[in-house]
Amino acid sequence: MKLVVARDEDGKTGPVELEVTEILKFTTDKARIQIHTKNDVYYFPFDSLEKIQNILQALNLPFVRADRGNLINMDKVIEIDEKFAKVYFEGDKPGERGKDATVSRPTNYKRVLALFRERQGRTNR
Questions:
Q1: How far is CA 94 from the centre of its chain?
Q2: Among 13, 33, 81, 90, which one has the highest count of C-beta atoms within 10 angstroms of its own C-beta?
Q3: Cα dihedral sign, 36-122-66-90
Q4: Which helix (H) or strand (E) holds 32?
Q5: Range of the domain at 56
Q6: CB–CB of 112/62 below 8 Å?
Q7: Which pTM value belongs to this model?
Q8: Measuring CA to CA, which residue among 41, 43, 4, 37 is closest to residue 21?
């Protein structure tokens, strides 16, 4: 599945199709939605992570809310730092840390950790 996104926040460079499986996370600073892949950042026309989350969940895609500003792709998480409540995504080399996202301890941390461990169990079989 592909999303239509923009390379710049104003959309002046025109639309770009981005494969959903390439997305590490969606972030917001309340002024705009950014989409992060391993090496790039794109912009999305929706105005809230909640709306994006609803669409992705309706499509049964593995994105979960990590905290107020991060919606993460659980299939792309390679490590969880339990001390600092962060998830890490794969970097340029296999096993290497790349981008990260924070996870809210009071509301989402246990769920994200359980999903991560469940996914690890599936890949280790």
A1: 18
A2: 33
A3: negative
A4: none
A5: 2-123
A6: no
A7: 0.84
A8: 37
**Euclidean distance between CA atoms 60 and 98, whole angstroms:** 25
Residue 59 one-letter amino acid = L
91 vs 18: CA distance, rounded Å: 19
- How far apart (Å, rounded) are the C-alpha atoms in residues 39 and 77? 15
The token pair at 21 is: 């499986």
Q: Domain holding 19: CATH number?
A: 2.40.50.1020
* Helical residues (DSSP H) of the chain, grouped into ranges: 49-58, 109-123
- Find tokens 């390679």 and name the residue: 78
Domain count of the fold of the chain: 1
pLDDT tens digits, 24-56: 999 997 678 999 999 999 998 777 889 899 989
